[in-house]
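Why do we bother with a discrete structure alphabet at all? Because it lets us treat a fold like text: something you can write down, compare, and reason about line by line. To make this less abstract, here is a complete entry for DinB family protein. Read it the way you would read a sentence in a foreign language you are learning: slowly, and without expecting to understand everything at once.
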Amino acid sequence: MTVPGPDDDLRGAHLTGVDLRGARFVRADLSGVVMRGVEVDGAEIDSPWLVESGSLLVNGVDVVPFVDAEPDRRFPGRELRRASDPDGLRAAWAALERTWEATLARAAAMPPGTVDVQVDGEWSFAQTLRHLVMATDTWLRRAVLGVEQPFHPLGHPNEEYEADGNDPSVFAPGTPAYDDVLAVRAERVAMVRDYLADVTVDDLAVERRNPWAPQYPETTLSCLHTILEEEWEHHRYAVRDLDAIEAGGQPAATSSV
């Protein structure tokens, strides 16, 4: 099997009559890719930035508006994630909390070990919750509140965190107890709720420092929007994987990447 590396430059390549069945593209830049006369049965595209990145034409139809609208239909309250005033943000967070509460209850009712199963090498349910702890620590505690050492040890970093030269040792190694994960996650959810309870229009306009790219200024509002986007996108992943686990039957206690 040919496995192109991150340094392989395939820009401008012409692939004609190539069999790509089962190929997997991870963190690949496919902007401007043109496919003609292709077989796409069962193909899957997952792009969290699809709405922001522009258009996606399928048989001449821009499907981005449809793709963005369907999760709003499935998860009432998701459409509030771009709210721009205090009351709207409070309503957005309340809707998100209700959605996650239902999904947490669903996971709790599934067979033991479900929360630690990784589907297709993706994060497990527990790892997803841990990553959302880190997201809150990054965009609320660090960017908005200015906490110098914002990260809880049970947070789960992404690859970009380490790629930016950050120290991964601030996070606990191994697999922590799920009850501990739930406790920290609940604390972070309450932290956002408490912050939104008192936020004002003036607060939302305050300029903040982007924690990953200091050269690009943020506002309190844009930081809160990032938290909401992280929450809804990772909820989508979590539900997708719980569906896959249910469809596959009883999971093993754990599954490695």
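What the structure line is telling us, in plain words: The radius of gyration is 20 Å. The chain has two domains: 1-70, 75-248.
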